[in-house]
Amino acid sequence: MKRIKRALAPALALGLVAGTAPVTHAQSKGAVPVRIDFRALTEEGAQVSDLKAEDISLKVNGKPRQIKSLSLFRTTSDFALPSSQLPAPYATNAVGMNGRVIHILIDDDSIAPGREGQIREAVRLITSEMAPGDRIGVLTSQGQISMRPGADPTKVRLAVDGLAGRASASETEGDAQCRTTRVLAALGTMLAMTGGAPTTIVVFAGGLTPPSQKIIDMTRRAAPTAATAAAAANDACPVRPEDFENLGILAGTAHADLYLFHVVEGMVTRSTSQDAGFESLAGVTGAEFVRLVASPQGPVSRMLRETGAYYVATFEPEPGERNGQTLRVDLRSTRDKIKLRSRPAVEIPKDIARAAASPKDMLRVAGEHHDLPLRATAYTSRSPGSEEVKVLALFEGTEATASLSSASVGLFDEKNTLKKQWTAQAADLAKRPVMAALTAPPGTYRMRVAAVDASGRAGTTDYEVKAEVPRADPLKLSALVLGTQANGSF
Q1: Are 422 and 378 in contact (CB under 8 A)?
Q2: What is the pTM assigned to this prediction?
Q3: 8 Å CB contact between 26 and 53
């Protein structure tokens, strides 16, 4: 495994909290501290699990900052608590409670037919390590496979097992440029979707076109030739330096660990230029760069080991810093031979941004909100007189004192189209948990709950719903809801 620059921030929305370090200092009343997630590794890539706040030096924009709290979240089954063998029966956006999140991007247009073996083996290795509560998704560069991170690793493995490489033996320079722009766009979307949830993004490709500057000589005019026609074709999908730089900026603040797996023998004719382009992407994003020349077992095992746990440190911004700007971060360990892997920058949101958040708007954007911890679940039942299925959504803030001021619920189909929406009224929010009823045609949906509390904190969480009423002739069965009734609430 070759390391290029500094790797990105901790990633993996990882679940099963195995331990939380004590809060080292009291936080200011009413202030929402800024979170920085990071990983602590030895020189061999092993996790360090005993860091204390005094073992860490934090500078933000060049100024030393006091760490207000430090928490450790472990995510692999080896670290899970004995009592936490099953996933929680609800979705939550609480950091460290969602299970591991891994999103795989495969540039199948750079893999020749018959050369998919290393990718299939790597995905089998990854899915075999999935624990209850983990989520994994996969996307190919042109969307032949498009699966949002979910809790069914078998479905992902089978989809990749059936993947066939699509690389052409006669790929032109212009074809390679267009392929590269598609990969960059897909990667940018993945980075943007991480929101506040740490995620591991894994990219498999045979190579990418490096960026180049376009120079136009306005002093010369000539009749079109074969060479100029080819150059014009290459201009259809220019790969510009700013495309790479913008991805680097996005990666700098994303909650993501990025691993680039170069399938060295993926293309029929290997191109040193394509090799350099893929390595350049690793350089600007701070990704871990891996050349796959044999079995992927070693690199995949190291990736899973490195992303098996992460820390969350908090600090309070200085007056005037809550202005939405991005500030550089320098995070180091004062202990020998321990490397901290963190994002190179952190965005400090405006206070007014939280107060102005709209649940309806939060339904429609890919980013996630974690300031307000939420949990949500859903149940299905018959909708009398209709072929549609009733979906009963239950949600609440995880904090006992959380008071919701507004909330919305949306159902998205498998094409990520918003099909149904519900908006809470004041009377709905007075109950705990809040109940929302929607009807939809039978199918699988992503239910998103978005809410804002009285202090302006915003939260979103997603839950997969199978809207169906199972047949048990002569009956049709709804879901079974278990709970207790107390103080007028369920």
Answers
A1: no
A2: 0.70
A3: no
Cα separation, 39 vs 49, whole angstroms: 10
The per-residue DSSP string of 279-297 comes to HHHHHHHT-EEEEESS-SH
Averaged pLDDT, 192-205:
82
Rounded to the nearest angstrom, the gap between the alpha carbon of residue 439 and the centroid of all alpha carbons in its chain is: 29
Task: Give how far Cα 274 sits from Cα of 1, 209, 227, 405, Å.
Answer: 19, 5, 21, 52
399: which 2 tokens? 């904090």
Q: How much helix, strand and coil, in percent to the nearest 5, is found in the chain?
A: 25, 30, 45
- Tell me, rounded to whole angstroms, the distance of Cα 440 from its chain centroid: 27
Distance of CA 7 to the CA centre of its chain: 16
Read off the tokens for 247. 């991805």
- Rg of the chain taking only CA atoms, in angstroms: 24
Nearest to 134 by CA among 194, 72, 39, 200: 200
Tell me the CA distances in angstroms from 408 to 363, 368, 448, 451, 465, one per residue in order.
8, 14, 8, 6, 16
Find tokens 């060295």 and name the residue: 264
Give pLDDT tens digits for 274-331. Answer: 999 999 999 999 999 999 999 999 999 999 888 888 888 889 888 888 777 888 999 9
Distance of CA 88 to the CA centre of its chain: 20
Do 312 and 17 touch, CB atoms closer than 8 A? Answer: no
Give every CB contact of residue 90 below 8 A, 6+ residues apart in sequence: 375, 376, 377, 463
Nearest alpha-carbon partner for 72 in 48, 92, 94? 48
Q: Which residues pair with 93 in a beta bridge?
A: none
Which is nearest to 169 in space by CA: 144, 206, 142, 120? 206
Residues 452 and 428 sit within 8 Å (Cβ to Cβ): no
Partnered with residue 342 across adjacent β-strands are: 38
> Is the CB of residue 463 less than 8 Å from the CB of residue 365?
no
CA dist 378 and 395 (Å) reads: 9
Note the Cα 406 to chain centre separation in Å.
26
Among 363, 479, 380, 377, smallest CA distance to 433 is for 377
